[in-house]
Amino acid sequence: MLATMLSGCAAASLLTGGGPPPATFDLTAPTAFGPVGSTRAQLAVTEPTAIGALNSERIVVRPSPTVVTYLAATRWNDRLPALVQARLIEAFQNSDGVRAVSPPGGAQVSDYGLVTDLRAFEVNAYDRQAVAELNARIIADSNGRVVASRRFRTVVPIPDTEAATVTAGLNAAFEGLSRDVVAWTLGAI
C-alpha cells in the first residue's frame, strides 16, 4: 500500500511539475523603422545556428564572462533560434521593404538567403547589460555566393537582474539588432 501511495505522489508531481510553471516570455519584432531601402527580391531567413547554451528555451545569464547560468523559473516561449528566426521574418514583413520573406523550404522561391549565427543573447549580470549579437550572411540563391556579411551587436543597460527587467532588456536589444539587420539586408540586395 505504501508503494502505491508513493507512486501516486510521484505521478501527481510529474503532472504538476512539482511547482508553479515557469514564467514564459516572448520577443517582439520592431514595427517602426527609419528610412530603409526596398527590393523586389524574395528572401528566405534561416534559423540561426547557436551553441548549446543558446539553443534552448532557457534565458542565459552570465554572472562572470566565463560562467553560464540560466534565469530561474523563466523561459522563452520557443527555442531561442526558432524564436529569433520567426521575429526576424516578422521584422522584414513589418518594414514593407521586401517583396516576400519566409523560412527556407516553403512554396516561395527565394532570390537570397539570410544565414545567421547567434553569437550572444544573454544578460551579463557582472556589468548589468543585455547583449544580442548575430553574425549574418546574405547568400545569392542562384549561385551560392556570399553577397555580403556583417556582425551585429546591440547592448542595452539594465538596472537589475529581475526576470521582467532581464527579458525587457533582451527584447530591446533584439529589436535594435533586428532593425539594423533589416536595414543592412535591404541595402545590400
CATH architecture identity: 3-Layer(aba) Sandwich
Secondary structural class: alpha/beta
Q: Please, what is the oligomeric state?
A: single chain
Instruction: Enumerate how many helices there are, as a single number.
Output: 3
What is the fold named in CATH at topology level?
Rossmann fold
Order of helices and strands: HEEEEEEHEEEEH
Q: Please, what is the CATH homologous superfamily?
A: ABC-type transport auxiliary lipoprotein component
Q: What is the 3D shape? A: elongated
CATH class category name:
Alpha Beta
Helicity, as a percent range: 25-40%
Number of strands: 10
Q: Please indicate the count of domains.
A: 1
Low-confidence stretches: 1-16
Gyration radius (Cα, Å) is 20 Å
Largest sheet: 8 strands, mixed
Distance from first to last alpha carbon: 71 Å
Strand-residue proportion = 25-35%
- Mean pLDDT equals 90
